[in-house]
Fold this sequence. Notes:
The chain is mainly α and 88 residues long. The chain is built from three helices and no strands.
Amino acid sequence: xxxxxxxxxxxxxxxxxxxxxxxxxxxxxxxxxxxxxxxxxxxxxxxxxxxxxxxxxxxxxxxxxxxxxxxxxxxxxxxxxxxxxxxx
Length: 88
């Protein structure tokens, strides 16, 4: 009789989302699907989603107004997310 291998005895870890690419149309599809599942699964969740969308639109309007009256030069924008910078 064959013994199960060591890796066969461990439970399956399930789907991990940390390595899935979520840019472009695939990310939009994934996001819309997750929101729809949340709204269908939690009926009172639709009010949370509606409030979140409204809050996002208000923040978008504020950011656009600030940018219209105080435009930012491209050289001023610096995104070093995940990459530490070294100052010599």
